[in-house]
């Protein structure tokens, strides 16, 4: 595959109700879904936006490996060598949650957790094509990757050492400290922040692009989801929502500034 080591290449929803989840995200983001050819029938689906694959859905119902797991979105980071990355993760204080495994026709992957316990996947795809699942300016794609962690400096060191991510500029969040941007190959891909006291546990939140944040927030509530924060403006003028779907998986939405959004909608 042509993605670089350290690029986000895929996003995956783990949910106990595939049909309900597919309907919900279609109503919010306009996604289409289809069964994955390389997976068992009905077990894995592919989400696409305007004909481009942007993520997947794995139904955890009936899978004993998922007993006790909560619905969640997980990110895949592309690496040059999955086995070497897994060894490196362990040496740096992380955990291997699922050992390196091959999926015929798809690639080799492993599920890891950073030293603060936040999971993600590392993967080397079998197809020599670049993933555009992360596309900062494209509606329906992930546009921002945000890590909430118990130790910001340790997280920056861990991910920087494993994937080459560099700390970028920061926004002062008062008692919570800095909201520190993450830079991969000159592109700002997200940020790392300290978890607020009494808030959710450390986790990744992935923000998917929408043209109209108010309309999307109303659709979340109308579809049985919950809006936890927003719509709210962030530095730069974009507007966000932090939410969870009806099964409890957390996610974010981001829209361009209102003037830009109005122009995009009219065109």
From TrEMBL:
<dbReference type="InterPro" id="IPR004360">
    <property type="entry name" value="Glyas_Fos-R_dOase_dom"/>
</dbReference>
<dbReference type="Pfam" id="PF00903">
    <property type="entry name" value="Glyoxalase"/>
</dbReference>
<protein>
    <submittedName>
        <fullName>VOC family protein</fullName>
    </submittedName>
</protein>
<feature type="domain" description="VOC">
    <location>
        <begin position="7"/>
        <end position="125"/>
    </location>
</feature>
<feature type="domain" description="VOC">
    <location>
        <begin position="138"/>
        <end position="256"/>
    </location>
</feature>
<dbReference type="InterPro" id="IPR052164">
    <property type="entry name" value="Anthracycline_SecMetBiosynth"/>
</dbReference>
<dbReference type="InterPro" id="IPR037523">
    <property type="entry name" value="VOC_core"/>
</dbReference>
<dbReference type="InterPro" id="IPR029068">
    <property type="entry name" value="Glyas_Bleomycin-R_OHBP_Dase"/>
</dbReference>
């Amino acid at each position: 595959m042509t993605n670089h080591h350290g690029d986000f290449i895929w996003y995956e929803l783990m949910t106990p109700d595939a049909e309900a989840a597919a309907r919900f995200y279609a109503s919010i983001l306009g996604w289409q879904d289809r069964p994955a050819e390389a997976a068992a029938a009905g077990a894995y689906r592919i989400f696409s936006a305007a004909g481009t694959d942007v993520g997947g859905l794995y139904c955890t119902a009936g899978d004993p490996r998922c007993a006790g797991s909560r619905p969640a979105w997980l990110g895949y980071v592309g690496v040059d060598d999955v086995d070497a990355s897994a060894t490196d993760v362990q040496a740096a204080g992380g955990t291997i949650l699922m050992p390196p495994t091959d999926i015929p026709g798809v690639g080799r992957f492993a599920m890891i957790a950073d030293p603060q316990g936040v999971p993600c996947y590392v993967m080397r795809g079998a197809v020599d094509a670049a993933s555009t699942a992360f596309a900062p300016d494209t509606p329906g794609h992930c546009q921002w990757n945000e890590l909430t962690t118990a130790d910001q400096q340790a997280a920056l060191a861990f991910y920087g050492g494993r994937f080459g991510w560099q700390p970028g500029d920061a926004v002062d969040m008062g008692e919570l400290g800095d909201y520190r941007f993450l830079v991969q190959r000159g592109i700002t891909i997200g940020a790392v922040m300290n978890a607020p006291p009494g808030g959710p546990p450390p986790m990744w939140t992935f923000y998917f692009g929408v043209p109209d944040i108010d309309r999307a927030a109303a659709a979340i509530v109308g579809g049985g989801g919950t809006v936890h924060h927003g719509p709210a403006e962030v530095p730069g003028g974009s507007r966000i929502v932090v939410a969870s779907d009806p099964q409890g998986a957390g996610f974010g939405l981001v829209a361009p500034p209102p003037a830009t959004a109005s122009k995009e909608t009219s065109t």
